[in-house]
From TrEMBL, chain A:
It comes from Aquitalea palustris. This is Homoserine O-succinyltransferase. The active site is at S155, D320, H353. The record marks R322 as: Important for acyl-CoA specificity. Pathway: Amino-acid biosynthesis; L-methionine biosynthesis via de novo pathway; O-succinyl-L-homoserine from L-homoserine: step 1/1. HAMAP family: MetX_acyltransf. Its EC number is 2.3.1.46. It is an enzyme of class 2 (transferase). The gene is metXS.
From TrEMBL, chain B:
SUPFAM superfamilies: S-adenosyl-L-methionine-dependent methyltransferases. Pfam families: MetW. This is Methionine biosynthesis protein MetW. The lineage of its organism: Bacteria, Pseudomonadati, Pseudomonadota, Betaproteobacteria, Neisseriales. InterPro entries: Methionine_synth_MetW, SAM-dependent_MTases_sf.
């Protein structure tokens, strides 16, 4: 039952095309678009057992399983989603998608704009969390899912789960909001802006239209990822893993890679800049910055959440300083004030913000217990 | 386990004090047995609060909404007068900020229910006379490993209430499963109080 090694196996990505224009928060209109998604498990006859997984900044639709038996890596949440796992694909029909503006198959800045025959690049509109949620609702319509048994997400994904519960109260039975926040703090926006500046000032960025120049703003992306990565780990976790370990045993008195942490960050940065789109990175950080479901309600998050009918699970991690437990407690406080049902776990972990992707035992137990409750409710 | 229809005797007494369909906050809720019973038999709405994530998990398993939190730092997650009843069952004696939690309970709730082992119980006094800190059914710890740091007797608790403008609405003292009416501070091992703010 607690076998965490089993997998959904070989999976395949699918494309859903939408030709009804999507009106975005910015005022821009996306005339048509496609969403790339994957599904695992089986939708039951009552269509009541569907779970939506919303991804974070650099995530995508490939949540679990492998495309080929010899794929090195499985989907990004394969440790949590699969047969017998907390998000149990024997019981639930799980949907993962790549958000609009992404670079993994859904329409985004690197896609071709049919109106011009060129990549969207700098002309791709800024998308917000509510925009994403609307596009996800259309995907739900397409899949015949009237109401999600649960919408689940960590970090930026948790914001989407929260937004779902507010914008489509009748379509979400449970929202699981993990390592998230009701809106970003000034410090968080500051980190995002440094990352954006790294990309925007890279000479290879070409104002966002680097595709035609056959250039990739690698340096910017790399710096953005390195900075981000520091904020996803905790000081203790980093210390435990790398300490002051040197690659060659002694100081070299130069500026090449010396400390193991430098080597690790540069490797992560290089790897990321190989596959991630710079414009997507900008868009994702903007979606984070703009997220504020209380903005149009005199900053009253309680008023925003009052509309929700979902039940909530909120979880945070003690060493997460990017989205600290205090931020999750703000959500809990608002939910209680709005008279909503909520379970809150504050998980002891050294893994920092990344803990939502790890398997700290109390986290796994809480997810399993909560989702078991969800499954029983929908007879999954 | 928590889904059982019979509740531990001391929790049953608390449950009897809770009005149907009321809002309940259970502090130090453990496995959620009280709230689970109240949900099913009295249709209450409410939350448990517990410091231990494993208890939060047990509550979820019992269908109870639990919020992980530290009572010592107050009840900041809860607005004023959100609840009809705030329960603190056999926990106050183990808290550092005893006075603060009592005040906080009546900030967030209309009524508080507080239960604690009565240090004035004769068996405890007898063990002290024999030269030892008491160990009994209601206080099953040795002095060196006890979580209980703030012992009190009935009169002490009532004095703390009076000091904070809190009035006692009802008091029950029990020994095992029997109610004690005669010499309660001597013969009772467990005290139950229903308290509220003084009017005005």
């Amino acid at each position: 039952m607690s076998d965490l090694t089993r997998s959904v196996g070989i999976v395949e990505a699918q494309i859903a095309e939408f030709d009804t224009p999507l009106h975005l928060a910015s005022g821009a209109v996306l005339p048509a678009y496609q969403l790339c998604f994957e599904t695992y498990g089986t939708l039951n006859a009552a269509r009541s057992n569907a779970i939506l997984i919303c991804h974070a900044l650099s995530g995508h639709h490939h949540v679990a399983g492998r495309y080929a038996a010899d794929d090195k890596a499985a989907g990004w949440w394969d440790n949590m989603v699969g047969p017998g796992k907390p998000i149990d694909t024997n019981r639930f029909f799980v949907v993962g998608l790549n958000n609009l503006g992404g670079c993994h198959g859904s329409t985004g800045p690197s896609s071709i704009n049919p109106a011009t025959g060129q990549p969207w690049g700098s002309t791709f509109p800024v998308v917000t969390v509510p925009d994403w949620v609307r596009s996800q609702a259309r995907l739900a319509d397409r899949l015949g899912i009237e109401r999600w048994a649960a919408v689940i997400g960590g970090s930026l994904g948790g914001m989407q789960a929260l937004q779902w519960s507010i914008d489509y109260p009748d379509r979400v039975a449970h929202a699981l909001v993990i390592a998230s926040a009701p809106k970003l703090s000034a410090q968080n926006i500051a980190f995002n802006d440094v990352a954006r500046q790294a990309i925007l000032t890279d000479p290879d960025f070409h104002g966002g239209d680097f595709y035609a120049q056959d250039a990739i703003p690698r340096r910017g992306l790399r710096l953005a990822r390195m900075l981000g990565h520091i904020t996803y780990l905790s000081d203790d976790g980093m210390g435990e893993k790398f300490g002051r370990m040197l690659k060659s045993g002694d100081y070299q008195f130069g500026f090449e890679v010396e400390f193991e942490i430098e080597s690790y960050l540069r490797y992560q940065g290089d790897k990321f800049s190989d596959y991630f789109d710079a414009n997507t990175y900008l868009l994702m950080t903007k979606a984070l910055d703009y997220f504020d479901p209380a903005k149009d309600l005199n900053d009253d998050i309680v008023a925003a959440l009052r509309k929700a009918t979902a039940r909530f699970m909120v979880a945070s991690f003690t060493s997460d300083w990017r989205f600290s437990p205090e931020r999750s407690r703000e959500i809990v406080k608002a939910l209680v004030a709005a008279d909503k049902e909520v379970v809150y776990g504050e998980i002891e972990s050294v893994h920092g913000h990344d803990a939502f992707l790890m398997l700290d035992e109390p986290y796994v137990k809480l997810m399993r217990a909560y989702l078991n409750r969800v499954a029983e409710e929908v007879n999954a | 386990m928590s889904a059982a229809n019979t509740l531990r005797a001391d929790l049953q007494l608390i449950a009897d004090w809770v009005a149907p369909s009321s809002r309940v906050l259970d502090l130090g809720c453990g496995d959620g047995a009280l709230l689970s019973w109240l949900n099913r038999h009295k249709a209450v709405r409410g939350y448990g609060v517990d410091f231990d994530v494993n208890n939060v998990v047990r509550c979820v398993e019992a269908g109870v909404n639990a919020i992980q939190g530290n009572l010592e730092t107050g009840l900041a997650e809860f607005e004023d007068q959100r609840f009809d009843h705030v329960v603190l069952s056999q926990t106050i004696q183990a808290m550092h900020n005893t006075e603060q939690i009592l005040v906080e309970m009546l900030r967030v709730g209309r009524e508080a229910i507080v239960t604690f082992p009565n240090f004035g119980y004769w068996e405890n006094r007898w063990q002290i006379l024999q030269g030892h800190m008491p160990v009994s059914e209601t206080i099953p710890y040795e002095w060196y490993n006890t979580p209980n740091i703030h012992w009190c007797m009935l009169g002490d608790f009532e004095a703390l209430c009076a000091k904070n403008g809190i009035r006692v609405l009802e008091r029950v003292v029990m020994n095992e499963e029997k109610r004690i009416h005669f010499l309660p501070n001597l013969r009772g091992s467990l005290a139950f109080y229903r308290v509220a703010r003084q009017p005005g």
